[in-house]
Amino acid sequence: MRRVITFGTFDLFHVGHLRILERSKQKGDYLIVGISTDALNYSKKQKNPIYSQEERMDIINALKVVDEVFFEESLELKGEYIKKYNADVLVMGDDWAGRFDMFKELCEVVYLPRTPSVSTTEIIEIIKK
Ligand code: CTP
After folding, report:
1. Backbone angles phi, psi at 92, to 5 degrees
2. What is the 3 state secondary structure string of the chain?
3. 25 CB less than 6 Å from ligand 1?
4. Which residue, 24, 76, 94, 117, is most buried by CB atoms nearer than 10 A?
5. 114 C-alpha vs ligand 1 centroid, how far in Å?
6. Fold (topology level) of 3-128
7. In 3D, which of 1, 2, 65, 55 has the Cα closest to residue 33?
């Protein structure tokens, strides 16, 4: 069985999130998703996601294509998570292209193209206007 791992915040769940999870699942048989914690988001962006980490996790966990979820507490722990969850493949959006090549010694690393014209940041901007 090929185990696939991917990571993200998945705030204000949108179709770009759905597509990357569907395409991640197609890279194997079992999909594990690391949901970044509120604290991790705050440390990166100095703001909290709109949905709490528990809400974001519940939404991702309810998807048919997702087999397992966990909280990503720190960006520095990606290698540990890959090992802990026995991942054969790491999938990241191509906004991260090349940035995770150091994990090629642990597993296959795949960058998938982002779905055009949708992002959580843009949704927030549209609603604000
Ligand atoms: N993603 C995607 N296509 C989009 C938006 C996101 O494939 N249009 C992917 C990202 O590449 C990542 C995952 O979905 O692998 C989770 O991304 P996340 O950062 O949570 O979502 P964004 O909408 O990009 O959020 P933000 O605008 O806050 O960066």
Report:
1. -135, 155
2. CCEEEEEECCCCCCHHHHHHHHHHHCCCCEEEEEEECHHHHHHHHCCCCCCCHHHHHHHHHCCCCCCEEEEECCHHHHHHHHHHCCCCEEEEEHHHCCCCHHHHHCCEEEEECCCCCCCHHHHHHHHHC
3. no
4. 24
5. 7
6. Rossmann fold (3.40.50)
7. 65
Alpha carbon of 119 to ligand 1 centroid (Å):
6
* Ligand 1 contacts CB of residue 34 (under 6 A): no
Residue range 13-59, pLDDT digits in tens: 999 999 999 999 999 999 999 999 999 999 999 999 999 999 999 99
122 pLDDT band, cuts 50/70/90, is: very high
Report CA 85 to chain centroid distance, whole Å.
14
